[in-house]
Write a structure and sequence with these properties.
The structure holds 2 protein chains of 2 kinds. By secondary structure, chain A is of the alpha+beta class. Chain A contains 13 helices and 12 strands. Chain A has 2 domains: 182 residues, no CATH class; 129 residues, no CATH class. In chain A, the strands form 2 sheets. A 6-stranded mixed beta barrel of chain A has the order 4-5-10-7-9-8. A two-stranded antiparallel sheet of chain A has the order 2-3. Chain B has 8 helices and 10 strands. The chains are: A alpha+beta, B alpha/beta. Chains A and B meet through helix 10, helix 11 and helix 13 of A and helix 3 and helix 4 of B.
Chain lengths: 409, 256
């Protein structure tokens, strides 16, 4: 008897008890659907985190100036400018691990257009900042070195600010805006960057050249850089190593002796990103394992029903044996029934799981991330569950004594 | 009368093929805890090709155990059993299953048809396990059902058939593999007198097949050419008899 024939017999036997077969398969259906939907949720969350970090820029270190400590009260990082423009130059020129570095000076200000105004952060920066953050312009031209050299009163608007001041879809290039009463010409609107992993809107900001910032908005602190430095580590290099190298450089330059605290701090975005990704991975694994447990419960349901079925059909088993079914053929038949139950359940579960994943991704606005390997794995696992939990009942059936089985009422 | 006489009485048997059933000193002991039950204490018996033998005995005489051993459903504790000249007394369970499939057809008191399965599919069942292809299976099962007069009931389910018809489906199932031996265990036990006569007419009309019939009813045993009586696990008597002839109106089973 070929496998096809065995499968047909199994299918016919299952169809004789449609409701029971369906309810048994339901355990597997829900299990497989849960695995697929849960993994899709986990993947969706992970892709959100990844997208957020991709928006931040890759291989980034952020150097913030140190804390002030006056009279025992220690302020937080950034409360006292300790970084100098020479520090920046040193990082740019003396560090082989550093691809690029850019300062940002930051202040909070009201930006006014002719008709609207909007409170946002105004950042003074240099052209390489946009390269480090891979942040292009949607409209207008990018910032250039000559803007920097001339101290031009030109401004680049973040997408959110552009929309607040000029309305969605407007072209504000060449228009004038006032920042702290100083008129600026809009030179560009930046591409939409989205949210930071912490939910901060990257696009709610405007940029002007550092020279203009120092000259017009904040007179500055002479040699001190009153902002932060963005450092791009060379591609393929370890950000941790770069972080240690910069720490050494800055401690040297600031003449900090052994035992003295750093007067600056370096944030390693790669580390933050990997921590967040690990969090997402853990969530993903947790959801998947909960779903796997439900698949296991489905398997136990199959075993239960198959045991009932074997007992109920003792007479049938006796008849089949009497007309010449070998123990192996009986084993194959009941194993096939469990397998068909599990596989049909698994396939229906895949359908249900895909549907659920699609609904969920629409709900959360995530991309639909169904991993084909997970679908294959869940289906394969349900088959394995069928064979695994069907084996004992099938063995029980195959070991029956035909005489006793025939006499069974 | 000796068995040898039976053999020589028929000219076609002169070439002396092996008997279909040859039991030599068969014993069967069941262990029930500490107690040993000797169901068969040394039965020797042979059945020639084409014979119609009834095995009789009170309950506890060992006739069911003998039937199970002869039917390859059970193995003897000691002794030798040659079925069609082949020793089957020490075969594995799987080998016994194949032997049953190829050599033996069963007819039971309670019909033992698969429920919710058509007459045709029930008859096809042994061929399925024999690995016969679908087309041939269908053709042979149809022919077997026609032979027992149920050619018009192929797609009926057991619960749509009368008791006599169900037993005829069972006979068709037993015949479909062209077995050497047909074993009937109280085949009329669940039937009324008229239907019983129909079934017995059918069984006694199977001239080409060796039939061993187990019964405790003398009326039924009367259809056989030879009656073997068991008592306490031993053969008490083994006599030939002129078999009962079917009534003229019962030679062909009706569709009713």
């Amino acid at each position: 008897m070929g496998p096809l024939q065995t499968g047909r017999i199994a299918l016919l036997a299952l169809l004789r008890n449609k409701l029971r077969s369906f309810l048994t398969a339901l355990g597997i259906i829900i299990g497989v659907a849960a695995v697929i939907a849960m993994v899709a949720i986990g993947e969706g969350a992970k892709s959100q985190v990844e997208a957020a970090f991709a928006a931040m820029g890759t291989n980034l270190l952020i150097i913030m100036p140190g804390s002030s400590s006056s009279g025992g009260a220690r302020g937080g990082f950034g409360t006292q400018p300790t970084l100098t423009w020479d520090d920046l130059k040193a990082i740019q020129t003396e560090m082989p691990l550093v691809a690029d570095a850019a300062p940002t000076l930051r202040t909070q200000a009201q930006v006014q257009s002719e008709e609207q105004n909007w409170g946002t952060s105004v950042q003074g920066t240099t052209p390489n900042y946009f390269r480090i953050r891979t942040w292009g312009t949607a409209l207008g031209v990018p910032m250039t070195e000559s803007d920097l050299d001339s101290g031009a009163k030109v401004v680049w608007l973040g997408a959110t600010v552009a929309e607040k001041l000029f309305g969605a879809g407007a072209d504000p290039i060449g228009q004038a805006v006032r920042i702290k009463g100083v008129p600026f010409i809009v030179s560009g609107v930046l591409l939409k960057k989205g949210q930071s992993p912490m939910g901060q809107d990257f696009d709610d900001t405007v940029f002007i050249p550092t020279s203009t910032f120092k000259a017009r908005l904040q007179p500055g602190l002479g040699n001190f850089l009153s902002g932060v430095i963005f450092v791009q580590v060379r591609a393929g290099e370890d950000t941790g190593r770069a972080q240690r190298a910069i720490t050494g450089l800055l401690r040297d330059r600031h003449r900090l002796g052994q035992g003295q605290e750093d007067d600056f701090s370096i944030r390693n975005l790669a580390e933050v990103a990997s921590a967040q990704q690990q969090g997402a991975d853990t969530l993903s694994a947790l959801l998947a394992s909960i779903a796997a447990v439900s698949l296991l419960v489905g398997g136990i349901g199959i075993m239960n029903i198959m045991l009932v079925s074997v007992t109920e059909r003792t007479r049938e088993i006796g008849i089949r044996m009497a007309v010449g079914a070998t123990p192996a053929q009986i084993l194959a038949q009941f194993l096939a029934e469990a397998l068909v139950l599990a596989l049909v359940g698994g396939l229906l579960g895949v359908g249900l799981g895909l549907f659920a994943a699609q609904q969920l991704s629409e709900q959360f606005g995530w991309p639909l991330l169904v991993r084909p390997d997970v679908v294959a794995l869940a289906t394969g696992f349900s088959g394995l569950v069928g064979v695994g939990f069907g084996l004992y009942p099938a063995l029980k059936a195959s070991r029956m004594d035909p005489i006793t089985a025939l006499r069974f009422e | 009368m000796s068995r040898a006489d039976v053999t020589t009485a028929e000219p076609t048997r002169l070439t002396a093929p092996p008997p279909v059933v040859a039991l030599e000193g068969i014993t069967r002991v069941f262990s029930l805890g500490d107690v040993e039950v000797h169901a068969l204490r040394g039965v020797s018996l042979s059945v020639q090709r084409g014979e119609f033998v009834a095995i009789m005995g009170a309950s506890g005489s060992g006739k069911s155990t003998l039937m199970n051993v002869v039917g390859c459903l059970d193995r003897p504790t000691a002794g030798r059993y040659l079925l069609d000249g082949k020793d089957v007394s020490r075969q594995s369970r799987a080998a016994l299953a194949r032997t049953r499939n190829q050599t033996i057809g069963f007819v039971f008191q309670s019909f033992n048809l698969l429920a919710r399965t058509t007459a045709l599919e029930n008859v096809e069942l042994p061929l399925l396990y024999a690995g016969v292809g679908g087309k041939e299976r269908r053709a042979r099962a149809t022919a077997a059902l026609e032979r027992v007069g149920l050619g018009q009931r192929l797609d009926h389910l057991p619960n749509q058939l009368s008791g006599g018809q169900q037993q005829r489906v069972a006979i068709a199932r037993a015949l479909v593999t062209r077995p050497s031996l047909l074993l009937a265990d109280e085949p009329t036990g669940a039937l009324d007198t008229k239907t019983s006569a129909e079934v017995m007419t059918l069984l006694s009309g199977l001239d080409d097949i060796t039939v061993v019939l187990v019964t405790h009813e003398h009326d039924v045993a009367a259809w056989a050419q030879r009656v073997v009586t068991l008592r306490d696990g031993l053969v008490l008597s083994d006599v030939e008899q002129p078999p009962r002839r079917p009534a003229p109106d019962a030679t062909h089973p009706t569709e009713a």
